[in-house]
Design brief:
The protein is mostly helical. It contains ten helices and no strands.
Length: 242
């Protein structure tokens, strides 16, 4: 197909944009977590993307089909998408309480790696020997980065943080695989909008809005950028997976 190389390059570009945005998010979360609390931050990470994606779909005037959600298989996939997405947010925030943002990003790569491996075995995606070498190198690098915690039996705060981030990565990979399968019958942004809205409703009772009033202008700017970056990152991710 003449357009295959172009689509591959576009997918790579969207993946790089996603990685660049996610690289900054843990730093902002770590700085804002003591000020707003875990669940208030999660709510903002859900409500802002919900509004942004909702406006985008209205402006684009896409003809969205909701009927596929009536099928039991698609409802099951949607439940996995919601559970994996929200679980990733919760455990990632718990992990950030114990480890640094840079460490969380390294161990958090288990999410994309599990999505990659799942795509090979579930969706039968092609994988070359060079790509297998790259995957092995990434896993080896992660092992070397955390070798002191992995090969000791000491259960300290750092080890607990690694455990939470690892679980968050696995849940993200589960979300990604289910979302990729669901995107065959639903528009990618359509399913993400459902996740954002349901998640925002779930975390609304735990949100402490009074904490926002104590933020400085710079901290509000950080919160705004972090929330918008979260939305944009999943837009570029969905485009990359397409």
């Amino acid at each position: 197909m003449p357009h295959a190389p172009l689509r591959w390059q576009a997918g790579l570009l969207f993946s790089l944009l996603t990685a660049a945005q996610w690289g900054l998010v843990p730093v902002l979360l770590k700085a804002l977590q003591p000020l707003l609390g875990t669940y208030t931050l999660i709510w903002f990470r859900l409500i802002v993307p919900a509004i942004a994606v909702g406006i985008y779909l209205l402006i684009a005037r896409r003809e969205l089909a909701w009927r596929p959600l009536l099928e039991p298989r698609n409802l099951f996939l949607l439940a996995i998408v919601i559970g994996g997405f929200l679980g990733n947010y919760i455990f990632f925030m718990l992990g950030l309480q114990h480890i640094t943002p840079d460490a969380s990003q390294v161990i958090g790569q288990l999410g994309p790696l599990s999505l990659l491996v799942g795509g090979i075995f579930i969706f039968k995606e092609p994988f070359t020997p060079l790509q297998w070498l790259g995957l092995g190198t990434a896993i080896l690098g992660m092992g070397l980065f955390f070798h002191r915690s992995l090969f000791t039996l000491q259960i300290d705060s750092y080890a607990i943080g690694i455990l939470w981030i690892t679980l968050a990565g696995i849940l993200w990979g589960t979300f990604g695989l289910a979302h990729k399968a669901l995107s065959r019958v639903l528009h990618a942004q359509q399913s993400l909008l459902i996740v954002y809205v349901i998640g925002a409703l779930i975390f609304l009772p735990t949100t402490e809005f009074n904490r926002v009033h104590s933020l400085t202008t710079f901290e509000i700017a950080m919160l705004t950028w972090m929330s918008l970056s979260t939305a944009l990152a999943y837009v570029t991710l969905a485009s990359a997976m397409a």
